[in-house]
């Protein structure tokens, strides 16, 4: 079949056309349908995909996902290091817990604190242990103190508390001059230090658990 044969096709009498011509026409119709379908069906889908890439999966979204992936990959790569740090923290926690006295040793610790001040030549005007505050692992006892002494002796006393075998911390420190004169009538160098010395003890098996902060329903 030649090009002239295709030009001279009478579409009003398609049924009378030779079989080869009918085959060419059917093939052409099929291809045209596929192309048209591709344009009207796939074109909107491609547009939607492009729109999604420009919005939801635009540069900011891609950058955020990339950073999230890099962060998670970094955590996975450093997991052994994190595990080692956690183990070290647990060991330090156990060491600190072993430094805590039990209830039977608290009286001795209070005496040691008092003796540390006296050993530095300080005068205790107040030494008042407060109520214990239990937590999940230990109980803390605040001790309100007021001691008199020179600036050097007060500093040495604070240093001695920090070096005790038991954990003792000083907080809420306030130092004020004492309005007094020595035997020669000169202004005294004595200072007053008010502070809260806090010590800690390990919980005994018979200790009540700390109160819960949860409100009843």
Automatic annotation (TrEMBL):
<dbReference type="Pfam" id="PF04350">
    <property type="entry name" value="PilO"/>
</dbReference>
<feature type="transmembrane region" description="Helical">
    <location>
        <begin position="20"/>
        <end position="42"/>
    </location>
</feature>
<feature type="coiled-coil region">
    <location>
        <begin position="72"/>
        <end position="99"/>
    </location>
</feature>
<keyword id="KW-0175">Coiled coil</keyword>
<keyword id="KW-0472">Membrane</keyword>
<keyword id="KW-0812">Transmembrane</keyword>
<dbReference type="InterPro" id="IPR014717">
    <property type="entry name" value="Transl_elong_EF1B/ribsomal_bS6"/>
</dbReference>
<keyword id="KW-1133">Transmembrane helix</keyword>
<dbReference type="GO" id="GO:0043107">
    <property type="term" value="P:type IV pilus-dependent motility"/>
</dbReference>
<dbReference type="GO" id="GO:0043683">
    <property type="term" value="P:type IV pilus assembly"/>
</dbReference>
<protein>
    <submittedName>
        <fullName>Type IV pilus assembly protein PilO</fullName>
    </submittedName>
</protein>
<dbReference type="InterPro" id="IPR007445">
    <property type="entry name" value="PilO"/>
</dbReference>
